[in-house]
Amino acid sequence: MNALVFDCDGVLADTEKYGQPARVQPDLPRVRLPVEWSVEEYGRRLKIGGGKERMASLLTPEFVAAAGPAHGP
């Protein structure tokens, strides 16, 4: 039997919420974003479709004001 399977994170199995935080979390301090996503929190964020929309749900005016200005490296 010949087969070809295409997959994106979370399509065939609920895997995205386990892998993505581990890939993203180490970069957050580098970009001075004071966020720590647990697997559970990221799972809740995944219910928001689209990466841009997901980040917009985090980067509210209140969050940005509390985090302070970001400066370059």
SSE diagram, text form:
Blueprint lengths: L15 H9 L14 H7 L5 H8 L2 H7 L6
Can you tell me about this structure?
It contains 4 helices and no strands. The mean pLDDT is about 75. It is about 40% helix and about 0% strand.
Helix content: 40-55%
Strand percentage lies at under 5%
H/E element order:
HHHH
Total strand segments: 0
In angstroms, what is the radius of gyration?
16 Å
Helix/strand/pairing category:
mainly alpha
Helix count equals 4
The biggest sheet amounts to: none
| Average of pLDDT | 75
Silhouette: elongated
Q: What distance lies between the first and last C-alpha atoms, to the nearest angstrom? A: 53 Å
Stretches with pLDDT under 50, minimum 5 residues: none
Quick rundown:
It is built from four helices and no strands. It has 73 residues and is mainly alpha-helical.
List keywords for this structure.
73 residues; 4 helices; mainly alpha; single chain
